[in-house]
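Input.
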Amino acid sequence: MLNKYARAFFTRVLTPFATLLLRLGVSPDVVTLIGTAGVTAGALVFYPMGEFFWGTVVITLFVFSDMLDGNMARQLGRSSRWGAFLDSTLDRVADAAVFGGIALWYAGRGDDLTLCAVTLFCLASGQVVSYTKARGESIGLPVDVNGLVERSERLVITLVLAGFSGFEKSFGVPHIAILLPIALWVVAVGSAITLGQRVVTVRREAAEVDAAENPDASSASDASPASEASPASGESSASGASSASSASSGSGAGQDEEKRRTV
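Output.
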């Protein structure tokens, strides 16, 4: 959902930086790699120590590379399948690092196995949500649905509230650490709903495509009850005829016997 409204704004903001990097001879792939490395380092170094404010600051500095590299590629007119593949793959790595770092905190010094499990669910469900769209598109379906909590929402909710929760340790603001658990529960529930939305959409789109490609199968399916009824009626007619024939034969035999007795 945020992609729909925020991407145009950030594209305008980041375009001058993209232009500058291109003039310096930096390639979009390099920006993608550096951005992922920065996010991964910030998440796995600071978050397991409970330094959520500083970890979020570091991550935020690098997370915009996800839009910056695409902007650079468009300016060069060199958008490619390889670039799209690399960008999508490293996005999954960055997401795993963010939620993995939080899970390490709760499994260690944070000492909360419930929130550790919720964090791992956020990590896994986020990967599956992305996979459902990629898999649906790979079999020729549009997967035309705006999920409740997609990648942008997951990152914004988690990073913003994680950063604010870090105010308690870094600046002594009391009772604000509760924001991170709230963020994790919201992301977990939202990701589950989004997964359901995408699965239902893919099922509907697949059924529509199958029906359009195999109209004969659909017609045969509709005609099958009538064809099943026809043999039954035939059998009924044959049975009736057989019964009538038997009754007639029995009546004739009885009359012959009567004649013999009379003679």
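The longest helix spans residues 215-262.
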